[in-house]
Each structure stands twice: as C-alpha cells, then as structure tokens.
Amino acid sequence: MAQGSGSEEQTFNEFYTEVKEIEKRDSVLTSKQQIDRLLRPGATYFNLNPFEVLQLDSETPLEQIKKKYRSLSILVHPDKNPDNKERAQQAFEIISKAYKTLENEPTRKKCLEVYEEAKDRTDMMIAEKKKKLKKEGKHDGVPEDEPAKYKHAIYVMVMKLFADIERRRQQLEVRDMEERKRKREAEIEEEEQRDLQKEWQKNFEESRQSRVNSWHTFQAGSSSSSSTAASAASAVKSKKSKKAKYTSFNPPKIKPETR
User: Fold this and answer.
1) Confidence class of residue 159 from pLDDT cuts 50, 70 and 90?
2) Is 60 exceeded by the pLDDT of residue 242?
3) Which of 73, 117, 192, 249 ranks highest by number of CB atoms within 10 Å?
4) 91-115: b or e for each residue (b if 16 or more CB lie within 10 Å)?
5) Mean pLDDT value of segment 227-241
C-alpha cells in the first residue's frame, strides 16, 4: 500500500511540475509570441482543437476557460497591436472561435468526446504494443508507461482525431456544394425549357390568325376550282350529249318515182 501511495505521489509531482512549466511558458508569451503561435506554419492543424488554442487542459471548468479567453483576447486584440493589426485580427478570430466552441455546451461535449476516444485508442495501442512484446518474449514495457509520454501520445491522438473530423466536414461540404450545384443546374435547365415552351406557345398564338386566314383562302380556292371543274365537266358532257344526238339521227330513205 505504501509503495502504491509513493508511486501516486511521484506521478502527481511529475504532473505538477509539468503544469508549472506550462504556466511559466505561457506567462512569458508576449502579444507577438501569442500571435506567432496561433499563426505559425501548420497552425491550422493545431487550431482545430479549441483547448489547444486557449492552451487549456480538457478538464478545465468553464469559468477558467472564460478567464483564459479574456486574457488571451486582450493580449492579441488588434487595438493592442497597432503595428501588427492584420495578423492580430486573425489571431483574435481564432481565439474567439475556440471560446465559442467551448462556451457552447453541446460543442464542448463533442470536444470532450474526442479526448475520451483519444484516450481509449491510445490505451488500445499500448495494449497491442505490450501484447506484441510479450509474444516476442520481451517484458521491458513501452515508452507510454511514463506519464509524460502517455500524455503526449493522447495529445497526438487528439490532434489526429480533430484532423479526421475536419477532413470529413470538408468532404461533406464539397459533396453538399456539388449536390447544390447539380440541383441548380437542373433548375436552370428546367427554367430554360419552360422559357422555350412559353416562347413557342407565344409564337403559336400570334400566328394562329394567319394560319386560319391561309386555311380559309385555301378552302375558298378549292371551292372555286371545284366549281369551275364541275362547270367544265358539265359543258363537256352537254357537248357529247348533243353530238351523240346528231350522230344517231337516221334520215328517211327516198323512194324512186314511178310513172
């Protein structure tokens, strides 16, 4: 029992020392250093984690989160950095976004779930390492048995999970954008088809009277032609009839005169 208590005390002392080092590091960061930290190459990857942005532990209560946000926001505020206003504005927006994420209970809960998953995955990874060493007949343990390295392994896994979440978000955003674009193109095509149909219908209506007049003219011409043809046919028939009449006439035979 005494040995276990001593081990716990050693772990606590190591943790306390690490916390103090972090506090000391943070205390010496000037406005420029904070701005540089938030905008350093590859910072986008680290800034996905709001706790990392505000330099806080995941178990920090909301009240402490608010205090840290106030101090950092004042430090990097554009008005406090007139010679570096543009970069200061970018840093200020990063800090504000991180705070809004942690201030909101549902989004803060999701961030804490990332930490929980990171811990579970790290523990599984360590167990797999130990299992492999055991098969190889080695019992020296793994580096993550040390509290500082274990914490660092979780930290790395947390960063990876946040990056995976962001990657999926971007993929969904691209997919959603493509779907909206496809729908819009379909709508534009439908609108064009409707416009063409309206234009055709308009032209059809405008030319209706012209077609009706043309039809009437055609019918009138057909009737006249039919009448003329009928008259001509009747005249021909009459001539034939007369000709036949005269042709069929047989004059009487003259008898010779007797004396």
Assistant:
1) very high
2) no
3) 73
4) bbebbeebbebbeeeeebeebeebb
5) 60
Give me the mean pLDDT over the 74-100 stretch.
95
83 within a domain of the structure (yes/no): yes
Q: DSSP character for 77?
A: -
* C-alpha closest to that of 91 among 77, 71, 101, 79: 77
Q: What is the CA radius of gyration of the chain?
A: 50
Is 128 within the bounds of a domain?
no
- Expressed as residue numbers, the domain containing 66 is 20-103
C-alpha distances (whole Å) from 215 to each of 13, 125, 157, 206 are 106, 89, 84, 16
List the helix and strand counts (H, then E) for the chain.
9, 0
> What is the C-alpha to C-alpha distance for residues 132 and 139, in angstroms, rounded to an integer?
10
Instruction: Name the token pair of 22.
Output: 């972090």
Here the tokens at position 54 are 């505000």
- Put simply, whether the predicted model's pTM sits higher than 0.85 gets the answer no
Structure tokens at 159: 């960063």
Tokens of residue 26, six digits: 């943070």
Spell out the residues 6+ positions from residue 57 whose beta carbon is closer than 8 angstroms to its own: 51
Q: 56 in a domain, yes or no? A: yes
CATH number at residue 47: 1.10.287
Our count of domains for the chain comes to 1
The span from the CA of 259 to the CA of 257, in Å, is 7
In a domain, 235, yes or no: no
Q: Which two tokens stand for residue 136?
A: 């190889």
CA distances from 41 to 38, 45, 55, 96, 158 (A): 9, 9, 18, 20, 19
